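If you are new to this repository, start here. Below is one unmodified record pulled from the training split, so you can see the exact layout before writing a loader.
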Amino acid sequence: MARIIAITNQKGGVGKTTTAINLSACMATLGRKVLMVDMDPQGNATSGVGIERADIDECVYDVIIGGSDSRRVVRPGPIEGMEVLPSTLDLAAAEIELATEISRETRLRAGLEPLRENYEYIVIDCPPALGLLTINSLVAANETLIPIQSEYYALEGLVYLFGTVQRVKQHVNSGLKISGVLLTMFDVRTNLSKDVEKEVRREYPRMTMRTVIPRTVRLSEAPAYGKPIILYEPSSKGALAYMELAKEVVQSGEEGPGQGTGRADRFGGVEGGAATRGDTGKGDKA
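And here is the target side for that same chain:
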């Protein structure tokens, strides 16, 4: 049964789509069977892996609104072991159409049900809003990973997002958990990024991921070529960072009771995060 991870933050520009694409691609590179679901009407995750939206006959909109079989809608991804449930601008209408529907919060969960046995991981790229599309993603997921930009006001809105997760947990998805807070766009050259990291680790020591994603030119360029960073520039700092994140996510799921140090301890502490940042946080080549 697939482990379903929603990449969520109501703020835009924090690296949700970049994380969804590259976490999925890197887990596939590690030999896992992965499905990436694009729940953002902008469709950036879809185009970011080289799928032309103009060539898409059916998308996730048809699954959650039209009742299409999701197995028929899935498209091959850029890496062996990775597939994509694509999005188009049609999905923008879903927010309004779902408002009057019965079981409106569970449409994506029902649509993914035929696929859960086919994958080890399903990664959902959520839109930058806490509307019905994001709620559907949280209801379908086992857990949510929250990327936050390494700038001031990084923690702004997190309390509200945590509240939304808690309400979903209480009313429609009791198994939902927050698997981690991920620092993105980290610039090792600035005191600002370092100060934000310290603040985040102080506020959420047990929840912050060890891996930190650097701000790099290559990560910004890769979507224009329709490739995840592991294909576009596999030796870049961004590729190494997302590979470390993929290993961290996979490891967190494979540790059973009594194994390792436990999720809470592994995701806490400044030392672990600083060590990873030291390996991946330097600026990339232009």
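Two things worth knowing about this chain: Strands lie at 3-7, 34-38, 75-76, 82-85, 121-125, 143-149, 177-186, 208-214. The chain is about 40% helix and 15% strand.
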